Every structure is written in structure tokens, then in C-alpha cells.
Amino acid sequence: MLVIDKAQKTFLQGMPNQRVALDSLSLTLAQGEFATMIGSNGAGKSTLFNAITGAFLLDSGRITVNGVDITWRPPHKRAFQIGYLFQDPMKGTAPHMTIVENLSLAYSRGRRSPLRPGVTKKDAAFFRTQLARFGMGLEDRLDAKVGLLSGGQRQALSLLMSTVAGPGLLLLDEHTAALDPVAAEKIMVLTKEIVQEQNLAAIMITHNIRQALAVGSRTIMLEDGRIALDISGEARKDMTPAALMQHYTPGTASKV
Amino acid sequence: MTLLMGSLHLGLIYGLMALGIYITFRILNTPDLTTDGSFTLGMAVSATLTVAGYPAYGILLGILAGALAGVITGLLQTKLKIHPILSGILTMSGLYTINLFILGDRSNVSLLGASHLFSWAAALLPNAAGRDITRLALTLLLACGCFAALVWFFHTHLGLCIRAVGDNDDMVRASSINVDAIRILAIALSNACVAFSGAVAAQYQGFADISSGVGMMVVGLASVIIGEMFFGRRSVTIGLLSAVCGSLLYRLIIALALKSDFFPAYALKLVSALIVTIALSLPAVRGWLQLARVKKEANQHAGN
Fold this sequence. Notes:
The structure holds 2 protein chains of 2 kinds. Chain A is of the alpha/beta class. Chain A has helices at 45-53, 75-78, 99-108, 121-132, 151-163, 181-197, 209-214, 233-238, 241-246, 250-253, and strands at residues 2-11, 19-29, 34-38, 60-65, 68-69, 82-85, 169-173, 201-205, 218-223, 226-232. Chain A has a 6-stranded mixed β-sheet with strand order 6-7-8-3-9-10, sandwiched between helices. The two termini of chain A are 33 Å apart. The longest helix of chain B is centred in the C-terminal third of the chain and has 36 residues, at 268-303. The chains are: A alpha/beta, B mainly alpha.
């Protein structure tokens, strides 16, 4: 599903404070594979996500999603296949527009003919059933402005928006870190359900070591723009949070 | 009566411009200074073609020219990454030359003797009262038509995209929509409305003047803001309606002030600027007052 081949990115090249963000990083993720990603601040986790979504172009290397080479594509064209959930619940939604308007835009994926109605009854009915399973009462508030929702509700909406069009690849950047424990748990359960149902390839960045081992089927640790650890199956089952902590090297930890 | 009639006419004609300003200022959330240039552009195209005997084409091509000016500002903003305010100023500055060129290197073109939309309308009913009615019906038709078209448009998928770009463009990009293209389209639409207003104004007042556009942006903002005072900021339909109503109120206020010799005609732009400044600073002033009150109460409690 996702193939990253020798991705290389150096910020501020040739300047005194030049920094290698991705160092010949290669990674392959199969359809339906749910990986968690850990690493110190500055290890390159978010940089890797930004490289995949197209916030910047690589210095060298290739990125392929679903067999399509997206290395040179602009962000909005990559978004057909990629759902992205930010840590900040505010980032994924338009606050002054209604729930149904937000969902309609996300659902259309730029493929709706431009002069057709932006919101249709048929879509609204579909969104209502999708929202109902969240158990947050959002299905009865389709015409409410998104800015009025709580952080947890907005993140639930963002989760639906990023997956409603069937992206194939889902990127989760600490998407429960800003939520209260109850909301975080709820969003996490929903995330697992959706990833499984749609058989999505997913990467979740987290700083919660226990979560990194419990969620999904694979754990990847980044360090200085490289993959320092990549475990799944038996090796992952045998790994304990304490042992995983040992892999955070003092060198990178001091940079925090 | 003539005062009311005149305000109604001007309010509706400049209401078209207020609709354009509303699109950039409130929906796209990026003030656009192209306005001063594109208003005169619409006026110049309309006047020149009216003198040549094609008043209807004058309006249509005026609208198109305005949209084109908007596209240029949009390209400067998005593709060349020039600051939005500066992009507008650059286009506006350049348009001054273009407008002079269209007017045939004259700063003023009179439509005296040429037939145009308003003379056609006036000819429908012979007596003076009838003339007023048909002319007003014409402006009403144009304003309502433009308003209805925009309300429809902002409920289409494309309209939804424009509103979302003004609200959170990250979210729009994540929805596979080309943010730059949407932004350019919105600025073009806005300036099409502004030029439409200029094109109609030229035929209504019977001349085009190179300096007609000066301060138009502020007049438009004043209209939008006055409208919001009465309607609040709610849906896009109410927003568009409030822009037109704001324009009507603005013209009425100005007409009344001028009639009562409250201030001379040349003070118009200063008064407009003051209205906009006061309206935009209200939230900040309210904040200070609230802070002062809280502090005072806290001090009183501390004193007890």
C-alpha cells in the first residue's frame, strides 16, 4: 500500500544549522496493516508524515501509495488516497461551517461536479448513520456549526471526515493527545474499528509506550530520521514497555 | 422623496459592490484592495461601449473585465506568493493605466446623448413618475438577480469550497480540493460583482470618471459592516442580504447627513473611513471596558 524508498530530506541545506530530517528512510506498509510510530521529539515522525502528505518535496527518494508514484504530486492530489488526522482537533475541520457541510466537502474529495448542490439529502442521511455509531449525539446536530463542538466531538468528526471517502492510507499524528482520557479512549476505539472495517493501512504517531505496543500489529521507532526499531509478531509480543524505553537513546533524549 | 429615491438607486447599485466586498472580506476572509481599480474598470468598459452604441455589452464585458482583474490579483496571491493586501494594491495601481487607456486617455467620458439601459427603461413609461418607477425597477432587478445568483452559487459544491477556504484551508486541501484555484475563483467573482456595480453606475449617472473608484473599498466595507449591525453574522444567505441592506442604509445615512448640512459633500470618504474604523474597533473597545470593570470590581472586593 505505502512504499517509501530511500526518502532523504535536509532542512536549511548548506546553512550552519542544517538538519537532516529524513536520512535515507525506507518503509513498506501493507494494505490493512496498522503500525504505531514512536521516537523522541525531532526524530522525524511528523516530518515523515509531511513528506507523505506533500507539505514539502523530498531531496531524493520515492513515495508510492497504492502503486501510484506520488513523489511529485501536490498535496491536494495526494489527499485522494490519504486521510490525515492532526493532534489539534481544530485543524481538521472548518469551525464556521456546519457538520453536514464539513462532511460533504470531505466526502466529495473534489470529485463532485462544481455546480451541483454542496449538500444533498442523500449524503446527509448517509452521514447521519455514520455519526450515529459514534454515540455522541452528533447525528441530530448536522446543522450545528462545528466551532460549537467539544474537542472530543470535533476529533470524532475529523476522524469520520478523514476516512469517509475511503482513503486507503490513514495517518494519525498523536490524534488523541489533546483530548481528555474518556474522549481519548473513545476516539481510539473508533479509530481501531474504522481501520479494521475499511482494511486501511494506518500509521499512528504516539508518545504513549504502552499504546504503541497494544494498538495495531507493528511498532516502528524513528531516530535521527532513520528507522531504529521495527518490530511485529513474536518480537513485538515479547517486548515490554520498559524494554522499549531502553531504545530511546540518551543522545536523542537530551535533544528534547 | 427624491432623496429616498436617490438613496434607493445608489444603495442598490453600490449594493452589487458590497456583495463583492462581502465575498472577499467575510467569506474568503482576505480583504482585497483590487476593488478601487476594478470598480473604475467596470465603469470605463461600460462607458466606452455605451458611447459606441453597445450599452448591454458594456455591462457584460465590464463584468468580465472585473473578473479578469480578480484573476490577476488571485494569481499574484497564490502562485507568486505576494501578500494579499499588496497583490490587490499592485493590480489596482496597474488598472489605473488600463482604465485611462480604455477611456481613450481621458479622465472623464460623458454618456450625454448616448442611449443606455436607464434611458431604455425610462422610455418604457412616458411621464416623470413612470420613469422613476421603471428605472428603479431596473436597478432592483439587477441587484436581486445578482443576489439570488450568489445565494444559489454559495450553496453549490464550488460555493461550499470557497467558504471552507476562508475558514480552514488545511481542511480543504485534505479534502483533495485545489485551494489556489478556489481562491483565484473567489477573488474573480468578487471583482466581477464590483465591476458590475461600476458598469451600472456609469450608465446610471451618465459618465465615467477615472477617480470614481477611489475609496470604494472603504465604502463597500462600511456597507457590509452596517448591514452586520442589523443582521448579525449568521448564514451566508443572510450575510449577502445584509451587505445589500447595509449599502442601502449607508446611502440613506449619507444622503440625510448631506441634506442637513451636517458635513460637506467632500467629507464623504472621511466619514466612511470613520464608520469602518469605529465598527471594526468595537470588539477591542468592548474588551477594554470589560477589563476595566472586572479590575474595578476586584479592587472593591480587595478593599472590603
